[in-house]
Every structure is written in structure tokens, then in C-alpha cells.
Design goal:
There is one protein chain. By secondary structure, the protein is α+β, with helices and mostly antiparallel strands. Helix content is 41%, strand content 24%. It is built from four helices and six strands, in the order H-H-E-E-H-E-E-E-E-H. Strands 2-1-3-4-5-6 form a six-stranded antiparallel β-sheet. A hairpin with a 2-residue loop joins strand 1 and strand 2. The mean pLDDT is 86.
Length: 167
């Protein structure tokens, strides 16, 4: 026996032979292992990047909503609406994990406060009628036609608007 570890001499020799075989492996094997590690890291990085961009966009919009003056006006699909219930719903936007549903018909929201205009799109969830997906129109990481996903909000404020769209 070698030392107190309980390793026999033949086990130690087998280990040394294995290490020598490892050193003799072709360089492409090492390159393959490195490539696999890089692919895993790239996958994790893209997930973290997606979460980061969503959080950053949501925080920007929530900040703009909190800075609105009392004279701000709000339209839903081009019709002026009472702003407080809608702003309350929009301020409740948060991240929601994937649950394999999709947004239904988009509802256009425009908030004007002097020279500042905030445009958003909300769309009812296909499986959860009180859940609405919130987007900021424009370029986005996924090239989603609705815009950059900000998160979801649970509300009944848009129920009549989601049923009226497309009629």
C-alpha cells in the first residue's frame, strides 16, 4: 500500500498509464473539449443577456411612467381613456417565466406628456385571460414584430379592448 490513502501500487501504475494516454491524445480532442465549453458558456451568456435587456427596457419604461405629470393624456387604440387604472396596470409590469403561451391581438397605448411620448403595446395571454404581455415597439433582440418584451401585468383594464380589436 502507498501512503494512508489505501491505493495499491497497481492502482497507482494504472493511474500513471491513464495520465500518459491523456497526454498522447490528439490536439483536436482538446480543441473539441474547449469548443464544447465555449458553446455552453455562450448559451448561458445569451440567456443572461436576454434577461438583462428585458430588465433594462422594463426599468426604463417604469421610470418614465413614474415621472409623468398630472396633465399627461393616454389613448388606447386611438381613444382617450382614463389614465389612472391603465397606468396602475402598466406600473405592475414584471418578469414572468415562460409558460408556453403566446400574446393575442395587440392593443396600442400612447401616453403623451408635453413633448414626451411613450408608446406601448399590450396583448392578452392566450391561456391566462387576466395576464397581458407588455411591449415597447421598435427594434429588439428577437426581432419580435410587437417590439421589445417588457414583461407581463395582471389586470382586467384591457379586457374590453382585447375583445374589440379586430371587430
Amino acid at each position: 500500500m502507498l501512503g494512508d490513502e489505501g491505493i495499491s501500487e497497481s492502482q497507482a501504475m494504472d493511474w500513471l498509464v491513464e495520465m500518459k494516454n491523456f497526454e498522447e491524445r490528439p490536439k483536436w480532442v482538446v480543441a473539441g473539449v474547449i469548443l464544447i465549453i465555449l458553446l455552453v458558456l455562450a448559451g448561458w451568456g445569451s440567456l443572461f443577456f436576454e434577461e438583462y435587456t428585458e430588465r433594462r427596457a422594463r426599468d426604463t419604461v417604469l421610470s418614465a411612467l413614474s415621472e409623468l405629470s398630472p396633465s399627461a393624456t393616454l389613448t388606447v387604440n386611438g381613444e382617450t381613456r382614463q389614465r389612472m387604472p391603465i397606468l396602475e396596470a402598466l406600473r405592475g409590469v414584471h418578469h414572468v417565466g415562460s409558460h408556453h403561451s403566446y400574446p393575442l391581438k395587440p392593443i396600442d397605448i400612447e401616453i403623451r406628456d408635453g413633448a414626451k411620448t411613450i408608446r406601448l403595446i399590450v396583448a392578452q395571454d392566450s391561456e391566462r385571460p387576466a395576464e397581458y404581455w407588455v411591449y415597447q415597439p421598435g427594434r429588439n433582440y428577437h426581432n419580435d414584430p410587437l417590439g421589445e418584451f417588457l414583461g407581463c401585468t395582471e389586470t382586467q383594464v384591457f379586457r374590453d379592448d382585447s375583445q374589440a380589436v379586430g371587430k
